[in-house]
């Protein structure tokens, strides 16, 4: 498995803890990779992808703080410098995306425009 040097995305300690908690569940499929990416759609034009998936031929493999993740090569321009956090409060619970490339984000925090 080849590693790419410049890691485009970072994770907070809270996000890493939640990802590792999900991966330690008995039903977790250990053949899957953590995928970070974007897809068309959402209120602002693009939506974030964060989930577990099979590695595809166009994927690059990265590692941040001992956490391996995959990302399609073409998604780097949208995600470079983004930080993924985990919110566990009364008003908000879930992963949040802090993306310096987004010119506009929506209220749900899961879609953006560039």
TrEMBL record:
It comes from the Bacteria. Residues 9-109 form the Core domain. Pfam families: Fe-S_biosyn (PF01521). GO terms for biological process: iron-sulfur cluster assembly. PROSITE patterns: HESB. One of its GO terms (molecular function) is protein-macromolecule adaptor activity. This is [Fe-S]-binding protein. It comes from Niastella vici.
């Amino acid at each position: 498995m080849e590693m790419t040097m410049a890691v485009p995305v970072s994770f907070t300690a809270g996000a890493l803890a939640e990802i590792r908690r999900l991966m330690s569940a008995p039903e977790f499929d250990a053949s899957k990779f953590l995928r970070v990416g974007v897809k068309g759609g959402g209120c602002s034009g693009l939506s974030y992808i964060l989930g577990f998936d099979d590695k595809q031929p166009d994927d690059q493999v990265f590692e941040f703080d001992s956490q391996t993740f995959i990302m399609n090569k073409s998604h780097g321009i949208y995600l470079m410098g983004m930080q993924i956090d985990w919110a566990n409060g009364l008003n908000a619970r879930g992963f949040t995306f802090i993306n310096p490339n987004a010119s506009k984000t929506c209220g749900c925090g899961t879609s953006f425009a560039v």
